[in-house]
Every structure is written in structure tokens, then in C-alpha cells.
Amino acid sequence: xxxxxxxxxxLQKAVVHRHNARQVVAELQLTADLQLAAxxxxxxxxxxxxxxxxxxxxxxxxxxxxxxxxxxxxTAKTDLANRLLGMLEQYRVVWYTGNIPHGLNESLNVLSxxxxxxxxxxxxxxx
Length: 127
Prior knowledge:
With 127 residues, this protein is an all-alpha fold.
């Protein structure tokens, strides 16, 4: 995560000599934000993971096994959902400046599906 943040800082200082320099930098920043989100998700999953076979030496052969997002705490899910929600809007802005509007919904579907997994169930049922 530190390396990604360092890259983001360097990117802010970068001087890009292209007609679409702002678009390129915005896309790279969004890519770095998505990488950080992936790291946060992985870290959250590992932090609640368990070795299911602690009785035998070496367990299951892995130090951590996590069966999914359902095992995350509500706080972790909410934090991840809030970050993803912010990135959805950023994604829309970046998309519209460099792509045709037609493909946006299909492209956003991946992030939207992921976001739904982090929302509390009572939020989903009230929609």
C-alpha cells in the first residue's frame, strides 16, 4: 500500500506533455485508488481469517483461510462500501471525459456488484 501511495504522490507531481494529459493522470489516479481498495479488501479479509484446523500441527497448511466478505465486520464492510461509493462517482467522471457514454453502465456494473456485497442487508432491502 505504501508503494501505491508513493506512486500517487509522484503522479501528482508528474508533468505530462500530451493533449489529454489531465485525462491520463485522472485514469492513473483512479487505477491507483482501485489498487488501494483491493489492498484494503485483502487486508480486511486476512484480518478476520482463521485457520480452520488448529488441532493438527500446521493446520490446513495455510496460516489464514477466509471464506469471504460475509465474515467481515459491519464496520469493515461499511468503510469499504463508502470508499467504493466515492470511487463510483470518480469512475463516472473519468469515463465521460475519455470514452463514449454508451459503455458506462456495463463498465460500472462490476464495481456496483462489488459495492452491493459490502452494503448492510437492511440497506439492500429498503431499495
